[in-house]
Amino acid sequence: MAAAVADMFRTLRVDVFALGEVCSEDLRDIHAAIGVPSISLHDATVLEGKPHFDTGVLFNRNRLAVGSTGSVLDSFGKTTLKLGERVTFLSQDAEQDIHLFISHWPSWLHCHEMDHKRTEIGAALRRALDEVRVSDAPMEFIVLMGDYNDDPCSPSLAHHLLATRDRELARGSNRFLYNPFWRLLGESAPFVIEGGRGICGTYFYSGGDHSHWHTFDQIMFSSAFLGDGPLVLNEEGCQIVRSDSIECKIRLSKSVFDHLPVMGVIDVRRTA
Amino acid sequence: MTDFCGAFRNGQVAAENADSARKEIAAVFDEINNQLHDPTAGRVEIYRQEYEKERDVGPYEREMGRYSIAFSSPPRAKEKYWGVAVRNPKAEDKSPRRLALWEQSRGGYPCKVSWGNVDHNCNDKESLEGCLASMLEDAIVGETIAAIMRIPDAKPVMGGATKPPTGQ
Q1: Which one of 3.30.70.60, 3.40.640.10, 3.30.70.890, 3.60.10.10 gives the CATH number of domain A2-193+216-230?
Q2: Chain A residues whose beta carbon lies within 8 Å of the beta carbon of residue B115
Q3: Radius of gyration of chain B (CA)
Q4: Closest alpha carbon within chain B to A82
Q5: Interchain contact, B117 vs A69, CB within 8 Å
Q6: What pLDDT is stored for residue A120 in this prediction?
Q7: What is the predicted ipTM?
Q8: In 3-state terms, chain A is what percent helix, strand and coil (to 5)?
Q9: pLDDT digits (tens, 9 = 90+) for A200-214
Q10: Do A75 and B117 count as a contact with CB atoms less than 8 A apart?
Q11: Residue B39 burial by Cβ neighbours in a 10 Å radius (0-12, 13-18, 19+)
């Protein structure tokens, strides 16, 4: 598995590569398989005791330096959920902080889609973002990414985290995040009689009642990326990464792979 | 027409709920101190305390500050915040040490405890108890409490021990 993930890392040529449902050993194996000295690892996994935290991030040290890291937790009774792992990078090209929040929210199996905890998770993560937003800079560069186990249209993300599909709304108010993955809710290509099989999201579950597909994996951006600052969202690059081998695997109910990766692109605006 | 009577009634219910949530939170800290009293021989008291710090300056002020050595700078505004503190009520030096940051919403819950690199939001009594137990298990928190317990006892005086400041 490490070799396949390392291959993907090399093919996509990304500077930040976040992984979910991993343990420290997986991360070390993947890091070793990539074998590039300038790639560093931030291991945010805690799998002993409860709750389990299973995210980590690989990043390119030639372009990004880690400023600080932290975990945001939310508890209800005996249940503790990790809302996200915050990694604040300094972009060396843009000389600008980028606050990355990596999340793996609970599945519908452990926290039903209508459970009030899901809305509270969205609101609590928004409060964590508000703490970043009240710092000196009026428009902070914040990126959220991960497996939210909720679609972009779900109340937790759309109404409580305030991740909107409306770019103008997000551009006009930094209370909102822009979520380009609203555009990737449906079929990957229009219907034609002899068309091939497409995808319809990032997560496949053959037992789904109303759809086998969900767009649970998303990347969201703060308003600052839609302005005229040093970092700009390149929306054309925001996509579900297609791969025949992974698509075959996720359709098999016994496979450990059930998600397709997603990618987001940020351009550095060079000033004369 | 806006239903002001309904809004008033809702506000009264919210006030009652907030009051009982605040009492419940205070009771959690009382319970910690009750349980720790015997094993620490009464040398550990954990409570919420308000702190003050100078307000963080913005980039403009920071930049100007570099060139203002020759001029007297105006005093910076103070910012208040809450923390979870520990003190030794039997010690000569009863000054508290901060264990964590504390934030509480207007309605009591959620409240947030931050220590190390963890921000932990608690939505009810049980989760707050679990969170504070995790805080006490932290190595740095443990060292701080151990240091507080090692402070020499005060010489006995008539009048008994002083009370810690009242929490939120």
Answers
A1: 3.60.10.10
A2: none
A3: 21
A4: B120
A5: yes
A6: 87
A7: 0.76
A8: 25, 30, 45
A9: 999 998 888 899 999
A10: no
A11: exposed
